[in-house]
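Example 334.
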Amino acid sequence: MKLPELKIGSLIAKIPIIQGGMSVRVSTSALAIPVAECGGIGTIGGSGIPVEELKEDIRKAKNATKGVIAVNIMYAMRDFYELVMGSIEAGADMIITGAGFSRDIFKIGKTHNIPIVSIVSSASFAKLAEKLGAAAVVVEAAEAGGHLGTSLSLRELFPTIRKAVSSIPLIAAGGITNGFEMAEMMDAYGADGVQIASRFVLSEECSVSQEFKEAYLKAQQEDIVLVSSPVGLPGRAIKTPFVDKMLADEDIAAKTCRYQCLKKCNYKYCISERLLASHDGDMENGLVFSGANTYKMKEILPVREIFNRFVKAAESVYKEHPAEKPAVVGAAAR
Ligand SMILES: Cc1cc2nc3c(=O)[nH]c(=O)nc-3n(C[C@H](O)[C@H](O)[C@H](O)COP(=O)(O)O)c2cc1C
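Predicted structure in complex with flavin mononucleotide:
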């Protein structure tokens, strides 16, 4: 059966896939444009780059596609509001916030008539986001890459939030690698769509270094581990010599704080420096964020091929069961 469109506010994605935002130039317009062209929501990672660079990248994406372009901004960033306002000014269609919860963002969304989507990992924050005016909620579970807000798996966490939130779309995120899993989340769990990131790192268009992609291709299940982030949250990453040092409790602290990037930093190491290193191909010193199921993916594909495979697999099994979905998840509720 054909997959439904994903409606968020007045925006429509023909294919219910959000490409997850990945900071520090992992998801730039180079990835977001083809995703939006394929009918998904292309997300530029808005954190860890200068505001002017972000604005230029958003404009580039908006000029290149009529599809939906979102910007993901981490609340933990010191320049959070500057990045949000810059994204709105540059014409982003949607703001997605992660790594912390902003209450004030919803007022900004209303004032500027732009949908705000919150990434949450608990029913209480999902309900709060719904109450404050979120246009949708991304339910991000422990299998996700980057910073994590829960140790619960997607199949444990999602039902608790599905029960709690009824008036806005719910997007499932964390560890989804193919269309069968996407259909399962939508069919059996009542998700309105999925957010996927790691699969898109292994795309031809993702602008990280070849070494970064090789680390993904080589990763075995046991190489994908939890690390602590200076943000104060656990993060999921692929083992590198730098991660080995961190896990062995060696001194990995930066000598100076060059980026001043976080509102609160525990200064254990410089996260900007380490993420930039991996982006640029320095696998010795870099931190490579990754979802837990990256080890299952062994091919770099064009974005269009990733979409074709997801949609074909999902539609071969998708069969909406309205009786099992909360009644409010119908079109009228959005
Ligand atoms: C390399 C990488 C960087 C990420 N950066 C961010 C980020 O800046 N902000 C955010 O909210 N989520 C970030 N995430 C999380 C993703 O957007 C997404 O929700 C999650 O990884 C989905 O799980 P999957 O990678 O298994 O598909 C990142 C994930 C990865 C793999």
